[in-house]
Design brief:
The chain is an alpha/beta fold. It contains seven helices and 13 strands. The strands form three sheets. A nine-stranded mixed beta sheet has the order 4-1-5-6-13-12-11-8-9, sandwiched between helices. Strands 2-3 form a two-stranded antiparallel ribbon. A two-stranded antiparallel ribbon has the order 7-10. The N and C termini lie close together (5 Å).
Length: 262
């Protein structure tokens, strides 16, 4: 009979590099950390963006899941063959260097992966896709940015509906083919990466969710922020619960394999 490992799954959260005063700090937003702990039922472990000092295989040995967070910074467009359009927008090359390698390695290892906002865009680029650097400047697309002068509650409030792929993974998780989401991003998917399937669309046709085809485990990315007040939103919570269950399945599979259980 199967035996279960009695510990919480460990979820890795790669950090952003941010200047606080004159010094760089490695940081992860509290809302992501709490969503992993409270909604996914896992132990969050923050990983510094120092890819030159990290062996991915050793790092992934301790991982039962990975959460790629949103960020104020953008992926450097050189990763999808473009020049920087707006030099005033923040970049984070140290995070790029870690996450773009981490994504493919984690998927190949069968480690559950949930990607949010910047992380969603990283997933697309890691699989050879490209981004619109300024979604609001693209003919036919809406302005998906938050109102800068609004308070945080208004910025993260529901902004527009998304249509979910009927029969898709996300529709199955949230139990619907429609949901309302917040919208806090200036960039978005242009060309979908190879081996990815779009799972949700904004009213203007912009891709809002994707999954990795043929992934061994949970491998889902969303453009919006389901971590925001996740315990108060049943559909957001369902995403984190499904991610947490996949992490738990991985830890139990590792435990059973190690102990020769059947």
């Amino acid at each position: 009979m199967n035996k279960l490992a009695y510990r919480k799954p460990v979820v890795l959260l790669p950090a952003d590099v941010k200047l606080l005063g004159a010094h760089p700090f490695h940081a992860v937003g509290q809302k992501y950390i709490l969503a992993v702990a409270e909604a996914a039922g896992a132990l969050p472990l923050l990983i510094p963006a120092i890819s030159n000092h990290i062996e991915l295989e050793e790092l992934l040995e301790m991982a039962d899941g990975i959460l790629l967070t949103g960020s104020v910074s953008n992926l450097h467009p050189s990763h999808f063959g473009q020049e920087v359009h707006d030099p005033s927008l923040p970049l984070d090359p140290a995070r790029d260097a870690l996450t773009l390698k981490l994504i493919r390695t984690a998927i190949e290892a069968g480690i559950p992966l949930l990607a949010i906002c910047r992380g969603f865009q990283e997933m697309n680029v890691a699989f050879g896709g490209s981004l619109h650097q300024t979604v609001h400047a693209v003919a036919g697309l809406s302005d998906h940015r938050e109102a800068k002068d609004a308070d945080v509650e208004m910025q993260y409030a529901p902004s527009h509906p998304v249509s979910l792929l009927a029969g898709g993974q996300l529709a199955s998780i949230v139990g619907s083919t429609q949901m309302m989401v917040n919208s806090i991003h200036g960039q978005g998917i242009d060309r979908l990466g190879k081996g990815l399937t779009a799972e949700a669309f904004a009213p203007d046709g912009l891709i809002e969710a994707l999954h990795v085809d043929g992934a061994q485990s949970f491998a889902l990315g969303v453009q919006w922020h389901p971590e925001w007040r996740v315990m108060e939103n049943p559909q957001y919570l369902a995403i984190f619960r499904a991610f947490g269950e996949a992490c738990l399945e991985r830890i139990n599979a590792k435990y059973n394999n190690k102990n020769g259980c059947t």
